[in-house]
Design brief:
Blueprint (H helix, E strand, L loop, with lengths): L2 H15 L16 H16 L3 E4 L5 E5 L8 E7 L13 H16 L6 E7 L12 H6 L18 H7 L17 E9 L4 H5 L3 E7 L1 E10 L3 E2 L11 H17 L7 E3 L3 E3 L6 E2 L2 E10 L2 H22 L2 E9 L3 E2 L2 H12 L6 E5 L4 H5 L5 E6 L16 H19 L1
Helix pairs in contact: 1-3, 1-11, 2-3, 3-11, 7-8, 9-11
The structure holds zinc ion.
Length: 412
Amino acid sequence: MDTAVIGQEILATCERLARHSDDTDALTVAYLSKAHRAVAAELRDAMEAAGMTVTVDAIGNVVGRLACGRPGAHTLATGSHFDTVRNGGRFDGRLGIVLPIALARHLHERGETLPFDLEVIAFAEEEGLRFASTFLGSSGLVGRFDASVLERTDAAGVRMRDAMLAAGLDPDGIGALRRDPARMLGYYEVHIEQGPVLLEAGEPLAVVTSIAGGLRYQCTVTGVAGHAGTVPMAMRHDAGTAAAEMVLALESCCLADASGTLVGTAGRFEVVRGATNVIPGECRFTIDLRAAHDGLRDRAFDEVLAACRAIAERRGVRFACERTMQVPATPCTPAWVDALADAVASLGLPARRMLSGAGHDAMMMGREMPVAMLFVRCGNGGVSHSPLETMTAGDAGLAAAATLAFWRRLAH
Ligand SMILES: [Zn+2]
């Protein structure tokens, strides 16, 4: 296989798909928008050209199947999502669809079959942009689709169920999409790293060991509002400075983690009814905490919580927090991690192993079957979920070669 050629082809396809957007000046593809349907149609054509039998399922996932012709063969599913965030990047999600299509075409043209059926799944929705409901595509395949989200409405007041019916989909058929784990070899996903680690290390690929589980909290600090000029510093109960100290405690806790996988973020920080000349009386902030293992993450949260309470007591303010999300970590299947690392090393490349701090469809699929993930270097400082996201054709070609080597290892 000529990795340079296949790498160029992968990049060219991602560029072509990026021409479809809901926004004229940015790449935005929301579930079942006009652009979304245009991308789905292009993917369908590409899969057919690669020799696959294509179906669009009840959720709108585009599924291409390359059967090996052996009776009783198991299925290896591979894919990713083709929806985007607002003003997103060209490779996030799409790489994991376009790369296996290119490989399937390569195999098909050479008349080579794998000893398993290959299913390339272009998931219709993962990012949650339109209906604030993530992993729609993959959740259906593992029987975890939350039917209540069908009643949700988008910003224009359109119900998800109605949007699906208008697109010719079958919301009542989602229950039948579940793949029988006994028939599945497992799920494999290629994804752009979405961070700077590989770029900094000067390495093109990494094998994902685990997908971090997330824990999110909404925190409220209540102090006493007062005049910024008349209340002496020593007599204040400033909710803003208390909350700031709590966020710093979160940062210290994560920096002290020896595993290097614990990450904590206060992405929203708000002084409620704040004004320049008023001592903050109430402050609200969020905590997003992730780690390779749920135990580590939960212990860290307990530590942060204890620190917040101590800060609140010392400063004479009230602290309250409410959990808004808890998702367990998904460890990748150890034997598959080893086989994928071996495949990467067979190309003469370092087989770095790393945690995925971001959630991916593999997280959902891994609830029911063996799972592995390959990360590909992100250019431009590692920026993703942005139009500045880049990847080289060379890296895409190496990812394709490593993927094929991994599939062949699974065959043995
Ligand atoms: Zn993604």
